[in-house]
Specification:
2 helices; coiled coil; 61 residues; mainly alpha
C-alpha cells in the first residue's frame, strides 16, 4: 500500500465516521419528532437519512 492509498483510506474513513455521526443525530431528531407527533419533521428526517445512507454507500463501494 502506498502513502497516497493510506492517505485516501484515512480520508474515506473520516468521511464515513462523519456520515455515521450525522445519521445518529438525524435518528435522534426523528425520535423526538415522532414522540411530539410532528409528522412533517419525521418525513424530513427520513429524507435526510436516505440521503446520508446513499452517500455512505458510495463511500463504502
Amino acid at each position: 500500500m502506498t502513502y497516497s492509498q493510506i492517505w485516501n483510506n484515512s480520508g474515506i474513513e473520516a468521511d464515513i465516521h462523519y456520515l455515521e455521526q450525522q445519521m445518529q443525530a438525524v435518528i435522534k431528531e426523528k425520535k423526538r419528532a415522532e414522540a411530539a407527533g410532528l409528522q412533517e419533521i419525521v418525513n424530513q428526517a427520513n429524507h435526510k437519512l436516505a440521503e446520508l445512507e446513499a452517500k455512505l454507500d458510495e463511500l463504502e463501494d
